[in-house]
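User: My collaborator sent over this chain with a note saying "see what the structure looks like." That's all I know about it. Can you take a look?
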Amino acid sequence: MSLKRFIGLFLLGMVFTGLAIAEDDTVPPLSLEDIADITAKIVTLAKTQEPIIKPSSEEDLTEDGYAFVYDFGTLYLNHPSMDEGSTLLQFVIQSEDVTASRNTCVGQTLQDLLASYTSENPLLRGDYNHAVLYLYNELPQQASWAWLARDGQRIQSVQYTLHARMSDGQYSDLGILYTLSSGLVDSIRVFGLTNRVSQSDVMSTLDLVAQSQKSTAYSQVTTSFDGLTLTPFSEADLTFSGIDFLHTSPEELNQHFGEPIEDTQMQDSDGSYVRMVDYGPCEIFYHYDASMENPSILSLTVGTDGFEGPRAIRVGDTFASVLSRFRFGEGEYDGEHEVLYGTPADGNYAFCEYGQDASAVLRYFTKTQDGNVIELMAIFEDMILTEFLVIHV
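Assistant: Without extra context I'll predict from the sequence alone. Here is the result:
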């Protein structure tokens, strides 16, 4: 495996294009130096170890190349044997003991990862599936961009890509892909080490990223490990997933969700009515007067993934991820009960009840401007959110 081939290629490309790191205090985007440094480090590390698993023949080719598996990760080569004639195509780091570019590493938090590179989108505005972090078009010299892929609030990966003009007039198509699970980096893939593309290919990619950059309707909810920097559950949190809990009418909800799966009603002893409507993603109870008019939502219950509630909580979220979206840390904890903030006398307060077998219930209360008290109840089993309710108390 020719280390000089990779380092020489990167350095030659940098000299040819005149790339330079900014001399101010800003964090720069991904550079060829970043890729060269981590590649040299991984190649050197691989030379000190024997692969745990390696190809035995040309039939062992994968879509990424021939895989040589080490305890720190996997190298993908263009040939089933590792010698001076083989070329490194890409590699994956899966060990916390190996530091990658900008001191990024497996086990790092999303916040620390994002702080390691420049970003023009601190609020992570985008759509439900993507958010562009930066896009720099400096063609014909170079272009670079970064975006993250997500499932709502759940960040799945962050990709940094660089298209630098090389000495042959073509452009690199390389970068680093960080995959994440529960907010932590779980693998680092350096890809495209030998890829070359034309300027027109680069421009097509930049157009795609620019189109994605125009979407700004969705953003990440502010979270913190320091609960005292967060705000309490409030009336502002009662508009979510297209629903205004205090004001949306049944007709508007029918337009939003479509025809309900189930729709039943019963009369109470005072002559008023309670109506239950199951839309699939959520179940809603309404209160009507004795004339079946003036409806208001009594409660909304969600027990399946895919529907975002206040501050975008979803069934399947971890306890820590939900807790870190609302204020906490003001009160005492006795092992079974924890005061998160406030008191019942205030009308705006929250607490947590801890049960056996890693179960818990988070309960948040807020008093609206018209005097109504609304509760958000989040129920956890094995510290995973299984159900949440918004209740007109």
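A starting point for your reply to your collaborator: The first strand starts at residue 66 and ends at 69.
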